[in-house]
Design goal:
The complex is a heterodimer.
Chain A (H helix, E strand, L loop, with lengths): L21 E13 L7 E15 L4 E5 L6 H8 L7 E6 L2 E2 L5 H8 L2 E4 L13 H11 L5 H14 L16 H13 L5 E5 L7 H18 L2 E5 L3 H7 L2 E6 L2 E7 H5 L5 H9 L3 H7 L32 H5 L5 E4 L2 E3 L17 H4 L26 E4 L4 E4 L4
Parallel strand pairs in A: 3-8, 3-9, 6-7, 7-8
Antiparallel strand pairs in A: 1-2, 1-4, 4-5, 9-10, 10-12, 11-12, 13-14
Helix pairs in contact in A: 3-4, 3-5, 4-5, 5-6
Chain B lengths: L4 E12 L2 E13 L4 E5 L6 H8 L9 E8 L2 E2 L5 H7 L4 E4 L3 H4 L6 H12 L4 H14 L5 H4 L9 H13 L5 E5 L7 H18 L2 E6 L2 H7 L2 E6 L2 E7 H6 L4 H9 L44 H4 L4 E4 L2 E7 L10 H6 L1
Helix pairs in contact in B: 4-5, 4-7, 5-7, 7-8
Classes of the chains: A alpha/beta, B alpha/beta.
């Protein structure tokens, strides 16, 4: 791949339609676990993120869902480069930013910004709103000092706050208004990518909708790409046309909204969806049938071998402990990592992945069999995929 | 009608240097044995404050509590502190939102649950321990005879909440108040805990008050729902009825502002404008009027000047609403979006 540093600014229409805004490949983040005592030896690693790949188009939005500890927030922090990844690449506009130093990162901060979960903890109580929102302008020396105030007021107006309130302090605002201040700060430098880490979960129900609508308006108006990290499946479904489901540091299923919410193939996605309480369904026809998961999420320090979900999976067999299922494309824009992938009630009895991986149904290698490694390595989607029910490779004719 | 729990005109007021905060202001509801009441509202609507009054947790503070809380005919507000102490935990128990801060980090889980039992039962430590292990097994903790000696930090979030439930139910109370019992938990664990609560409710015939901001939890758990706003009940009725035919603009707003798993994603959410009111100086008339889209449909400035009463809705006496609107049907959502 040729990498150019050209065209850092200018209209995004100049970007080639095929190149994604963000291309993450095989990203890993291991946090060392130190022993107690005088010599703090590293005794293990928390495998918070363990080899994930995805893409975000310019102006698109990817939702990242999963339970606490699955690595979704770590992923957000890796993309904003608040952490330096252990391994893997993060290509932003074609340039790998995974290993940049602090000095090289500074110009990048203009392009990628973050909205935090807690509107109380993320604003400095000793600074006025004007200096909080205006700080990025001064740090990056974007506009002359005299124009900072007018730009701040413009931003406050965009996020629906009174521009006259620039000299107030954060404590004078409610939770929803504080979140708007955080959004204004993130927009100050006109970023191309926004990482929103649980942007509405700390807010009251009636306020959540206001902030979600604001984020949608902003995205459409400024054509900003979003990495939307949240645990609320309904909020993510509303906001993101594409969703990735994470479990214990891995993406287990990724795809377009309908693929995930209507045709989920991974048992974990199905359990997650069935567990989410839903007002309308519960109010009309009583409760849906819930898929009960037993136990808790295992420790990411010593994750299960093979498929990480197998310890709680109702379909797990021998192969799941022996071979890790690759994230395979099974539809036009739908990938899943499961040996027994299938829609609810249609999980196959035999591992569908075995012939592709060159193993038998117990996961033992078959002598002489090839491993078809083409499937599941790319961060994007390809024109060919493996049709699980039909057990054959399909080519998209429309492409 | 013999109700297990009847709350009548409950008021909890906190005097502060800036004035009186009317956290709960004239709340009435009933709960039958073995049934579940869901109390829904935003932070500061008075839902937690009113429920801690049932446990007598405002005793000894500056709070002014008035009204009646009748538990099996006894008014919990008039009994002595000692009588209240004997009932607390035995007849009324509470499950808190955050089990990590509700448990003492220095004592084992078994010790803490056992203490709750020994306060009300004159038994040896050994007998209490046996009972604790029984309860831990009942709430689904694996290897209870070993885990009983663990400290709270050795439990996962879901297991801690199970231990809290064991602690609340060990004295077989008639009433359990669950204050946001699953808010701190992940959805799959939340589903486990809600199922557990329902299953134990059937077994012990416990009345449950579940306090939450999550309408989905209420829809799945509660027989009746009470919607609170600014310290008052604004709508009260059977769950199914209230969620399918709400008759109060605040409830409409709550329902239209949360996305669900089946809605059309192209449709924008309809938020409730503005922010919740200050309880120090609540708005005149209907407390919701500054955020209400429908006050123009009420003749004159009734909404601004006169507090509406909690009156029966159009679909029967069991469904109460606090609103001046005469046509209490949900308006077309498109009209709402345009207004």
């Amino acid at each position: 791949m040729t990498v150019t540093d050209a065209a850092p600014t200018g209209p995004s229409t100049a970007t080639d339609g095929s190149a994604p805004l963000l291309d993450v490949r095989d990203l890993k983040m291991y946090f060392p676990v130190k022993s107690s005592g005088l010599i703090r030896r590293t005794v293990g690693h928390v495998q918070a993120v363990d080899g994930i790949s995805f893409q975000i188009e310019s102006g698109g939005s990817l939702g990242l869902v999963g339970e606490s500890g699955c690595g979704k927030s770590t992923t957000g922090r890796l993309v904003t480069r608040l952490y330096k990844p252990t391994d893997g690449s993060i290509h932003f506009e074609g340039r790998d930013i995974a290993n940049l130093g602090a000095r090289q990162l500074k110009p990048l901060r203009r392009e990628i910004q973050m909205i935090f979960q807690d509107p109380y903890g993320s604003l400095n109580p000793r600074h006025t709103v004007g200096s909080i929102v205006g700080a990025p302008l001064e740090i990056h020396d974007v506009v002359p000092k005299k124009q900072v105030l007018s730009r701040v007021q413009e931003l406050l107006e965009i996020v629906g706050l009174n521009p006259e309130h620039y000299n107030r302090y954060p404590h004078e605002f409610s939770g929803g208004q504080r979140q708007r201040i955080g959004i204004a700060r993130a927009l100050t430098l006109q970023p191309k990518l926004l990482v929103a880490d649980e942007p509405v979960s700390a807010l009251d129900v009636s306020i959540q909708a206001q902030v979600i609508n604001l984020l949608q308006d902003i995205q459409r108006e400024f054509n900003i790409g979003f990495l939307f990290v949240a645990h609320d499946l309904a909020v993510v479904r509303h906001f993101c046309p594409e969703i990735a489901v994470m479990y214990l540091g891995k993406i287990v299923e990724i795809g377009e909204r309908d693929a995930i919410y209507q045709h989920a193939n991974h048992p974990y996605t199905q359990a997650l969806l069935s567990a989410a309480p839903d007002v309308k369904q519960a109010a009309i026809g009583g409760r849906r049938e819930r898929i009960q998961l037993q136990g808790d999420v295992p420790s990411p320090i010593n994750p299960p071998s093979g498929c990480r979900f197998r310890t709680r999976c109702p379909f797990a067999q021998d192969i799941c402990a022996a071979v890790e299922p690759p994230l395979m494309q099974i539809g036009r824009r739908h990938k899943v990592a499961c040996h027994f992938a299938g829609e609810i009630g249609h999980h196959p009895a035999e591992p569908v992945t075995a012939p592709l991986l060159g193993v038998d149904r117990h996961g033992d290698p078959v002598p002489g069999a090839d491993r078809n490694t083409d499937i599941g390595t790319d961060s994007g989607y390809s024109d060919t995929w493996y049709d699980f029910p039909g057990r054959r490779i399909v080519r998209d004719e429309s492409a | 009608m013999d109700n297990f729990l009847s709350v009548r005109d409950l008021r909890v007021h906190f005097p502060t240097p800036d004035g009186v905060v009317k956290a709960t202001d004239g709340l009435s509801y009933d709960l039958a044995k073995g049934k579940t009441l869901g109390i829904v509202g935003e932070s500061g609507s008075g839902k937690s404050v009113s429920s801690s009054a049932i446990l007598g947790l405002h005793r000894g503070t500056s709070a002014q509590v008035s009204g009646q809380i009748l538990l099996e005919g006894t008014d919990l507000l008039t009994i002595t502190d000692e009588e209240m102490r004997l009932r607390r935990g035995k007849e009324v128990a509470m499950i808190f939102q955050d089990p990590l801060s509700a448990m003492h980090p220095y004592y084992t889980v078994g010790n803490q649950i056992g203490e709750a039992y020994r306060v009300h039962h004159d038994v040896s430590k050994k007998a209490a321990r046996t009972r604790v292990i029984e309860m831990l097994e009942l709430v689904g903790i694996p290897q209870p005879d070993r885990r009983v000696d663990d400290y709270p930090h050795q439990f996962s979030g879901g297991m801690r909440q199970r231990a809290m439930i064991a602690m609340a139910l060990i004295n077989d109370p008639g009433l359990v108040i669950a204050d946001e019992p699953t808010t701190a938990l992940d959805v799959t664990v939340q589903a486990q805990i809600l199922d557990l609560l329902q299953q134990l409710q059937k077994e012990f015939n416990t009345g449950i008050i579940i306090i939450t901001h999550d309408l989905g939890v209420v829809a799945e758990m509660a027989d009746d729902v009470l919607v609170m706003y600014a310290g008052k009940a604004v709508e009260y009725g059977p769950t199914k009825e209230l969620l399918t035919h709400p008759e109060m603009p605040y409830t409409w707003g709550l329902l239209s502002s949360v996305p669900d798993l089946t809605a059309d994603v192209e449709e924008k959410l309809v938020p409730i404008p503005g922010t919740p009111p200050s309880l120090l100086s609540p708005p005149s008339g209907c407390a919701f009027h500054p955020r209400c889209r429908y006050k123009d449909q009420v003749a004159g400035d009734l909404c601004v000047t006169q507090q509406p009463d909690l009156t029966p809705g159009s679909r029967g006496p069991g469904h109460l609403k606090r609103c001046h609107l005469t046509d209490p049907t949900v308006p077309n959502e498109e009209e709402v979006a345009q207004s």
